[in-house]
Amino acid sequence: MDKTINITLKVWRQRGPKEAGKFETYKLNNISTDSSFLEMLDILNEQLVNEDKEPVVFDNDCREGICGMCSLYINGHPHGPDSEITTCQLHMRRFKDGDTITIEPWRSAGFPVIRDLMVDRTAYDKIIQAGGFVSVNAGGAQDANAIPIPKRDADLAMDAASCIGCGACVAACKNGSAMLFVSAKVSQLALLPQGKVEAARRAKSMLAKMDELGFGNCTNTGACEAECPKGVSITNIARLNREFIWAKLKD
Amino acid sequence: MWLKDSSIGRKLLMSISGLFLVLFLTFHLVMNFAMVFSPEKGGAYDAICGFLGANWYAVAGTLVLAVGFLVHILYAFILTLQNRKARGNNRYAVTARPKGVEWASQNMLVLGIIVVLGLGLHGYQFWAKMQLPELAHQFGMCIDENVLSNAAYGSYHIAQVFTNPIFVVLYLVWFAAIWFHLTHGFWSAIQTIGWTNLVWLKRWKTISNIYTTLVCLGFAFMAIWFYFTLQ
Asked: Which of A35, A178, A230, B175 has its CA 20 to 30 A from that of A51?
């Protein structure tokens, strides 16, 4: 038979972006340790609906760690106490019987709360729109093998591209800085020949957009890297710094 | 101007001014060792103090140094205020320091304030009794004969301060704060300039730990050495 645990949840409830929020406490009994964290929240919501109460709003989509939608700040860690996983990959076996689990939304000026645990992350889309792409003239794509790329560069670009844009870096950063995200999105293109052409313009416009949207200044604490579900390295931030400083010095 | 209008530019100001202060600290340490080898009045250490004094190059150096300090301290407060604002209106109820994140890196402002307080004391005990009276005298102000005659003798002022155990302890606390501040600050400055990659990030962290430890041990050793030898 499954092992089950009884837990207490402290969940942040907030009706809207402008309203003040507060913590509500819920008790959940007989939660299977095999259930995922989000399934546990589904059980909570079912219980709330049955009691004619408002269910807790939280973001989720693919539930296999690739879409970047889930976003909970659990017991002081974005995506919970495990490392290099998203919230949807977190399981209740990570918790003990009688535990109190505190669940908060990402807290950052750049990510305003929409409701309860759901935050508005369109700021990331705006940063991408500012330059996180390669301009291509329409026409037949050329053969990939025609452009040799060193293995090292390909690997580094791929590692940067593993960023799913979930926002855990901003949530973990004491400065609310989005540098890890921006640097990953700059690096995944700047390392490849197709992206190098627009590298300077991209670094400048994406960083300007990040600053404009109210994210903070990076102070190299490294909390973003430690909490990133994809283990994106802060050496990408060094690359962004290089790209940006060079671009500005050339101007 | 991008240096003050962009987040990387502001960080670069912190980084360059910080590295400049690290360089200054190194010179200061090397200079102080003269006092260990030659503590007598008119010895090697006093020769250095006399050479610097209130000569134009020493005054110019002091001014550049003051600008470095001012930029670093001013931007520390500006960045901290901006970053607190970026954090939003609600604080987290539960926070945990993730593995691999140094305590110092999240408390740089507090450590910096301790360093500035120490700097105030240090400036009052030495600069205000050495370069300042000489400068004031050059500008024709009336300075006490006693003060002026001792102004060029660093050895006298060191003996005044470091024979008092309270000041020795205060200076040791100061060095400890500088150690914490620099173990993060050094490699962080290099990272901000962009001179790191997967290999060099680890190397710079190790280099800054070793370098900072050597510098702070050097200063701490001297504070204790002076206490026991200059009684």
From this structure: A35
Tally of domains in chain B: 1
Domains parsed from chain A with CATH numbers: 4-114 (3.10.20.30), 121-135+147-250 (1.10.1060.10)
Chain A / chain B CB contacts < 8 angstroms? 148
Judge whether residue A211 has pLDDT over 90. yes
- Which structural domain, as residue segments, surrounds residue B150? 2-89+99-229
Contact check, Cβ <8 Å, A102/B10: no
Residues 133-172 of B with CB under 8 A from A: none
Residues B114, B118: Cα–Cα separation, whole Å: 6
pLDDT averaged over chain B? 95
Chain A CB within 8 Å of residue B91 CB: yes
Residue B94 lies in a domain: no
Asked if residue A2 has pLDDT above 80, the reply is no
Average pLDDT of span A207-218: 96
Q: At CA B139, angle to CA B133 and CA B143, rounded to 5? A: 40
Q: What is the CATH number of the domain that holds B178?
A: 1.20.1300
Q: Which of B98, B104, B75 lies closest to B9 in space, CA to CA?
A: B75
Find residues 135-174 of chain A whose CB sits inside 8 Å of chain B: 172, 174
CA dihedral A41, A16, A109, A178 (to 10 degrees): 40
Q: Environment class of residue B133 by beta-carbon count within 10 Å: exposed (0-12), middle (13-18) or buried (19+)?
A: buried
pLDDT score, position A1: 53
**C-beta pairs of A118-121 under 8 Å, 24+ apart in sequence:** A118/A57, A118/A58, A118/A59, A118/A71, A119/A59, A119/A71, A119/A167, A120/A17, A121/A71, A121/A165, A121/A167
